[in-house]
């Protein structure tokens, strides 16, 4: 796990965008994994700016989103499929039908989840997965207690996650869906490179567990300690509970120029 502490969201966005650009340079038809939520927004802004400037293209790429609320109407602005279209996909040059998400309106949910796993596999797996982290340590919507071997499935959202996300629903907790479809922890672990972004003080405890805690279903993100290629991009506030913060800073400072992510 490489821990990189950067001054602000914009710098984190640029650093993650560099990793996406390097991947697309060497593999233009790469498969990206996209997270919604606020953490990756600066990455998407930076990628959209580079695409508008003709510096990067997603024309041959494909992408899969991590999760989706169950039951939100197709045109609901907070449906993750619509959110990712607004904040990223519609701003770059993906081809038609190349970005997929779990179907939160499926009538046969187990079949829809299995079909989603099949689609990721058929695409050759995810090359670079962008993830955020919940204050309770979830990645995608793998809430505490999730099986470390889980695959795409329906999950009940914790009250904490619904409270955290109420800001997207006019601060109305009752408007936040109770269930979601989410890639499992094993699905995420199959990605070849995972970039996790955490911003702000509210993420500091989860980040401490992620990087320095024991691997446990109670802090689902800790499974990433078993992944061979994870980059954790943090602002100072999200890094403040790390015991080895000085070591991570020094490691990044002394990183040779030739060594990317
Ligand atoms: C979103 C997702 C969630 C978020 C997490 C952090 O697709 O999978 O795990 O990444 O809840 O959300 P933000 O970034 O809004 O703090």
Automatic annotation (TrEMBL):
Matching InterPro entries: Glc/Gal-6P_isomerase, Glucosamine6P_isomerase, Glucosamine6P_isomerase_CS, NagB/RpiA_transferase-like
Active site: 67, 136, 138, 143
Annotated EC: 3.5.99.6
Highest taxon listed in the record's lineage: Bacteria
Record domain Glucosamine/galactosamine-6-phosphate isomerase: where: 15-227
Keywords: Allosteric enzyme, Carbohydrate metabolism, Hydrolase
This protein's GO CC annotations: cytoplasm
Molecular function (Gene Ontology), one example: glucosamine-6-phosphate deaminase activity
Gene Ontology biological process: carbohydrate metabolic process; glucosamine catabolic process; N-acetylglucosamine catabolic process; N-acetylneuraminate catabolic process
Residues annotated as site: Part of the allosteric site: 146, 153, 155-156
Record's catalysed reaction(s): alpha-D-glucosamine 6-phosphate + H2O = beta-D-fructose 6-phosphate + NH4(+)
Pfam families linked to this entry: Glucosamine_iso (PF01182)
Parts of the chain that traverse the membrane: none
Main EC class the enzyme belongs to: hydrolase
SUPFAM superfamilies the UniProt entry points to: NagB/RpiA/CoA transferase-like
Record entry for activity regulation: Allosterically activated by N-acetylglucosamine 6-phosphate (GlcNAc6P).
Annotated pathway: Amino-sugar metabolism; N-acetylneuraminate degradation; D-fructose 6-phosphate from N-acetylneuraminate: step 5/5
Task of the protein: Catalyzes the reversible isomerization-deamination of glucosamine 6-phosphate (GlcN6P) to form fructose 6-phosphate (Fru6P) and ammonium ion.
Similarity comment text for this entry: Belongs to the glucosamine/galactosamine-6-phosphate isomerase family. NagB subfamily.
PANTHER family: GLUCOSAMINE-6-PHOSPHATE ISOMERASE
NCBIfam families in the cross-refs: nagB, PRK00443.1-4
The name this protein goes by in its record: Glucosamine-6-phosphate deaminase
Origin species: Mycobacterium syngnathidarum
Gene: nagB
